[in-house]
Amino acid sequence: MKRIFCTLCAMTLLLYGVMTTAFATAVPSETPQGAEGDSTASPATEGVAEAPIPTPDPVPLYPAEVKQSEENGVTRIEKIYYLSAQDDPSNIPTEDFEREGKVYTLLDVLKQAQIESDTQDYVEVLTLDSDTQDMEKILAMLEPELEVQTEDGYQGVLSLDHTTITVEAAGYKSSSRTVSATRTYPNLSGADVSLIPKSITDSGRTLTLADVQWQEAATTQTDGYDMALRYTATATYTGTATSKYATGYVVTANYVGEVTRVSTDVITYTAVFSSGDSASAGKDTDAAIDTTQSAPFSFDWKWLLIPLGLGALGCAGYFGQKGYKHYINKKRGYE
Fold first, then answer.
1. Are 103 and 112 in contact (CB under 8 A)?
2. CA pair distance 19, 13, nearest whole angstrom
């Protein structure tokens, strides 16, 4: 009897140990999030919470045009966006969408720059220095055409307008020189300077007497000598003449024509979507994808130890009871 009882106890303990091991292996251990955070926390930053940096929401973009076409049972939708250089093309919606019972999926995003040109009349004033005012020499200095590019991006080739050429003195200087004039005074009664004018006006300038030359004009005999009766005076007058002259010349000319600016301020993006399936088929496909992407089912065979252990424990109890009754009956002499 004692042997049977010990056997039952040993089987019970063995079954308990196996079941405990099975449960411990089946349930994964988890590390508390708080404990993990405490082990990695830095004492210097303890108690200091960093404020999250808010992320601005992307600016929604809406298509300017939507085109739909169908070929060989495949429907395509093109959504056209006109963006500037400052717009972010990554904000263009590319997610799948449903329309009229069909699910559309992105195929391509096409990019094309829109080239625009603007033409306007333009006048370029050219100024240059010259040491002469001779028009032939000035024309040789000026190019018949002039290539220009403005600050705001316009460019072109202009032609010289000859009617606008002007020449002006850049500055003046003055110079002085000595001028002289001669005057003759005949039939004077005597060689007396007082008979000669002290100054004269010549070409608008005032000249003063500088020298007088005398010459006898008529004589008479007196005591055998020739005596002068009349005199001719040749007077020289001098003065200073001042003149002004140009130090240089400034030539101004206009070049006229048209200039053009080419810009690519607008960029066209075309999002191409395609679909040949119905919405329900798309949902079934999504469900199938979700099923295949989920974790595969696995059965832990340790759980079979529970019913096996219970069965073994039941059998041990049943046969133990039968053996115990047999032992008692035999001891009492019933068998």
1. no
2. 10
Rounded CA-CA distance 235/181 in Å is 8
Q: What does the pLDDT average to over 40-46?
A: 47
Residues in the chain: 335
Angle at 268 between CA 264 and CA 271, to 5 degrees: 160
Q: With residue 34 as reference, give the H or E element that holds it.
A: helix 33-40
- Give the C-alpha separation, 103 to 167, whole Å: 78
Burial 239-258 (b: 16+ CB within 10 A, else e): beeeeeeeeebebebbbebe
What angle (nearest 5°) sits at the alpha carbon of residue 216, between those of residues 210 and 222? Answer: 140
d(CA 60, CA 285): 29
* CB crowding 64-87: b at 16 or more within 10 Å, else e: eeeeeeeeeeebbbbbebebeeeb
The pTM (predicted TM-score) of the whole model is 0.43
201 neighbors 207 (Cβ within 8 angstroms): yes
Could you give the CA distance from residue 81 to residue 90 in angstroms, rounded to a whole number?
A: 12
Phi, psi angles (nearest 5°) of residue 246: -80, 140
CB atoms within 10 A of CB 115: 10
d(C-alpha 142, C-alpha 158), whole Å? 13
pLDDT tens-place string over residues 281-322: 444 444 433 434 444 445 565 666 666 666 666 666 666 667
Query: What's the CA gap between 305 and 311, in Å, rounded?
Result: 10
DSSP 3-state assignment of 23? helix
CB neighbourhood size of 34 (10 A): 8
